[in-house]
Design a protein that fits this description.
With 94 residues, this protein is mainly α. It has one domain. It contains two helices and no strands. It has helices spanning 20-64, 67-93. Helix 1 (20-64) packs antiparallel against helix 2. The longest helix has 45 residues, at 20-64. It starts with 19 loop residues before the first helix and ends with a helix. The model has no long low-confidence stretch (mean pLDDT 90).
Length: 94
């Protein structure tokens, strides 16, 4: 896989240099950021589960020698890939 993965880390600050109001604001910001990251983790876990199920299905079809169904599954994945690529391109265009 030659695609570069970019990850923005959470920012850090020194709470000893902040007023109580600033600490509260920073805590709220950090909690909101963590909640957003939790939602992203859930989304990614769902994607991993779906990919794993697809790979297991393909492996079972291969072991059974069911090449027609492997081809059908690969066609379904190719269509899905094309749809995702088109959607990604459309998002980048806007």
């Amino acid at each position: 896989m030659s695609e570069v993965i970019v990850h923005a880390c959470s920012t850090l600050c020194n709470p000893d240099l902040l007023s109580e109001q600033q600490v509260r604001a920073e805590l709220k910001r950090a909690n909101d950021e963590l909640f957003g990251k939790d939602l992203k983790i859930i989304e990614l876990k769902e994607q991993v589960h779906a990919l794993n199920a697809t790979l297991v299905k393909l492996a079972k079809l291969q072991l059974a020698g069911n090449y027609r169904d492997i081809y059908s599954e690969m066609q379904r994945l190719a269509v899905h890939y094309q749809e995702q690529t088109a959607a990604h391109s459309a998002r980048q265009a806007h």
